[in-house]
Design brief:
- The chain is α+β, with helices and mostly antiparallel strands and 107 residues long.
- Helices cover 57% and strands 12% of the residues.
- Strands 1-2 form a two-stranded antiparallel ribbon.
- Helix 3 packs across helix 4.
Length: 107
Amino acid sequence: VLQRLQVVDYGYMSATSVLVSLGHEIKLEILHELQYRDMTISQLSRKLNLARTSISRYVEALASELVIARIEKRGSEVYYRINPEYLHRAKPLLNQYLDALLVETER
């Protein structure tokens, strides 16, 4: 089982960083699948019908951006899960960004 006792600094987050982290169709498809259950790269590859190397690249990016977390290792496979703390912190950043756009647009 992977250790989850690390302190995570979310201070880097901004609306821009969130949009960059989520700004790819494949990343969104991965998150869509992970909302239902924890999955491995192999499982995501089969489910999304994409090469394991492609999925691996996107999963590693999402993990390094803290959008998802590595939660368990079984044999050679690592299971990933959506990091709800990231989403809780991302939501107000996106809301503020969009509100500011609306204010400027409606002038």
